Amino acid sequence: MKRHLRNLKTLVKPYFRQIVLASVFLLILTVIEMAFPAIIRQVIDVGLKGGDQRFLIVAAGLILGLGLIKALVNFREQYLTEWIAHHVAYDLRNRLYNHIQRLSFQYHDHMPTGQLISRVIEDVRSLQSFAGHGLVELARIVILLVGIGILLFSRHPVLAAIAISPLIPMVLLTTDFGKRVGRLFLAVDNTLGELSSILQENVVGVQVVRAFAQEKYETDRFDQTNRKLFDRQITVVREWAKVMPSTIFLVTLGTILILWFGGQMAIRGEITVGELVAFNSYMLLLANPAQQLAWLVNAAGEAYAGLQRTFEILETEPDIQSPPNPIPCPVFRGEIQFERVSFRYKQSERPILRDINLKIEPNQRVAIIGATGSGKTTLVNLIPRFYDVSEGVVKIDGMDVRQMDLPSLRRQIGIVLQTSLLFSTTIRENLAYGRPDASEEEIIAAAKAAQAHEFILELPQGYDTVVGERGVTLSGGQRQRIAIGRALLMNPRILILDDSTSSVDTHTEHLIQKALSTLMEGRTTLIIAQRLSTVKKADLILVMDQGRIVEQGTHHQLLALDGLYRQIYDLQLKNQEELEDDLLTQPIDLSRVNFRSRNSLE
Ligand SMILES: Nc1ncnc2c1ncn2[C@@H]1O[C@H](COP(=O)(O)OP(=O)(O)OP(=O)(O)O)[C@@H](O)[C@H]1O
């Protein structure tokens, strides 16, 4: 709790001046509200009793003047509190987004995307709505309660005690509700996160759902979580509905008590009629905010849950960041070394990479092959520090990558994956994603080298065509060429490629191969190889099996070894004729070869 209040303080601190000003406005408003019953009392006791018309006119003028001031101050106060709330939400969304950008892959592996989205949007919204309207109302209630309490007790302590007495169970009721509601809202928010995860997964994976005709299953899954959300929300409403009528009843009880006891006192002449009316007006002044108390506690609970969930993200230290005093990264020569590297994902029981020793010379082309799940992707992911080694060290040009400045390390490593993500913006901006300062000539040159220039020109708005959800849909081959252009423009010293191309026609395949060759020139390149042609051309081939590099060398050296590589190769050679035809057209998926079957071959 203390920690969360401290967090809240860090959020509102920049707006301290505005908060003070809003509080002053609030105080003025409340004082004006409390002045009205006092004026009415004077009107009844002095004006009406003495039949003094001038007194009535003065009182009416006073009420009119105060009413005008109240309207003006009210406008300023409402504007200011909303302004503060929106600024706090704006800052929080930015802080969250910046932090999420810095969190490691390890974190993203286990945090569902939908949960993150729901925290940045929904939890911030609940915080914002409480920070605006809620906090002000709460402050108003406190000021009113204290102010009216002092006024009533100073005039007539006995009647004040009678009038205020129903407020005691009301406060007890709402505090009890307040204790429970935070927990209930946390459950609601978590389920909302689950629901957005399912939605997000289904929208992204719509093709898979349709292809497997699993619409019914997915609809049921969504319905189940939606029902859970509904049930949890209804629980909150039920709890709230229990408290709400009780508070309304208790306020009404206050008025009844005043009329009953106060009325008798007035008959006995112990208080004036004006005082009785003023007492009742003060109670009515409290009625509205008191009824809102349950709503406020509700909103506070929701905001508290939001605060907990958003700060859970903000308090997560990124596992992977630049060291405090990073070694400045000069332009890499491109030598890569793995020394006794082992790696285990946080969740995995066994090491995924074991005792990897490897030296790659600058500008070498390295092909990595191995069965699916043998650790190829994991191995290359250690170079740009998407994950950090569990044991051993990865070095570039003799320096441990963990000692380098992270952005300058990653800027020198280009990555082209099989399914390259493009952003929903123009082709030009997608190409210049890593180099926003690139000139038009540079962008076009990169697109030409990536064999993308021609098809870009054929698009409706050329380089200004928006891709993705808001614009045209590009084919797999076109997307990959844009991704190659994007990497080319970065001019990285080290390149990581996935050379598989999802079924494209011969011509596109040829264009992609040409683009990749241009991209690889003069750079250290690691290719997760799916094609025999790529493997044959590599300076060094790494054969991976169950997290280890079991063989390494050139095509001929490895053939001569007569080991696993030979077996893979022979398996392909059996279909020699077919392969000859397909070599430039169809990717030969080496990862699909059953490496384990070598035992049966022996
Ligand atoms: N983020 C992750 N968290 C936990 N385990 C993972 C993660 N990514 C991969 N693995 C596991 O690590 C092992 C190696 O995966 P990796 O993706 O490196 O294999 P690969 O050789 O690239 O496979 P493929 O050819 O199918 O892409 C697999 O058993 C996989 O289940």
UniProtKB/TrEMBL annotation:
<dbReference type="InterPro" id="IPR039421">
    <property type="entry name" value="Type_1_exporter"/>
</dbReference>
<dbReference type="InterPro" id="IPR017871">
    <property type="entry name" value="ABC_transporter-like_CS"/>
</dbReference>
<dbReference type="Pfam" id="PF00664">
    <property type="entry name" value="ABC_membrane"/>
</dbReference>
<keyword id="KW-0812">Transmembrane</keyword>
<feature type="transmembrane region" description="Helical">
    <location>
        <begin position="20"/>
        <end position="40"/>
    </location>
</feature>
<feature type="transmembrane region" description="Helical">
    <location>
        <begin position="55"/>
        <end position="73"/>
    </location>
</feature>
<feature type="domain" description="ABC transmembrane type-1">
    <location>
        <begin position="20"/>
        <end position="302"/>
    </location>
</feature>
<dbReference type="GO" id="GO:0015421">
    <property type="term" value="F:ABC-type oligopeptide transporter activity"/>
</dbReference>
<dbReference type="InterPro" id="IPR003593">
    <property type="entry name" value="AAA+_ATPase"/>
</dbReference>
<keyword id="KW-0067">ATP-binding</keyword>
<protein>
    <recommendedName>
        <fullName>ABC transporter ATP-binding protein</fullName>
    </recommendedName>
</protein>
<feature type="transmembrane region" description="Helical">
    <location>
        <begin position="248"/>
        <end position="267"/>
    </location>
</feature>
<keyword id="KW-0472">Membrane</keyword>
<feature type="domain" description="ABC transporter">
    <location>
        <begin position="336"/>
        <end position="571"/>
    </location>
</feature>
<keyword id="KW-1003">Cell membrane</keyword>
<keyword id="KW-0813">Transport</keyword>
<dbReference type="GO" id="GO:0005524">
    <property type="term" value="F:ATP binding"/>
</dbReference>
<dbReference type="Pfam" id="PF00005">
    <property type="entry name" value="ABC_tran"/>
</dbReference>
<feature type="transmembrane region" description="Helical">
    <location>
        <begin position="135"/>
        <end position="153"/>
    </location>
</feature>
<feature type="transmembrane region" description="Helical">
    <location>
        <begin position="159"/>
        <end position="177"/>
    </location>
</feature>
<dbReference type="GO" id="GO:0016887">
    <property type="term" value="F:ATP hydrolysis activity"/>
</dbReference>
<keyword id="KW-0547">Nucleotide-binding</keyword>
<dbReference type="InterPro" id="IPR011527">
    <property type="entry name" value="ABC1_TM_dom"/>
</dbReference>
<dbReference type="InterPro" id="IPR003439">
    <property type="entry name" value="ABC_transporter-like_ATP-bd"/>
</dbReference>
<dbReference type="InterPro" id="IPR027417">
    <property type="entry name" value="P-loop_NTPase"/>
</dbReference>
<dbReference type="InterPro" id="IPR036640">
    <property type="entry name" value="ABC1_TM_sf"/>
</dbReference>
<dbReference type="GO" id="GO:0005886">
    <property type="term" value="C:plasma membrane"/>
</dbReference>
<keyword id="KW-1133">Transmembrane helix</keyword>
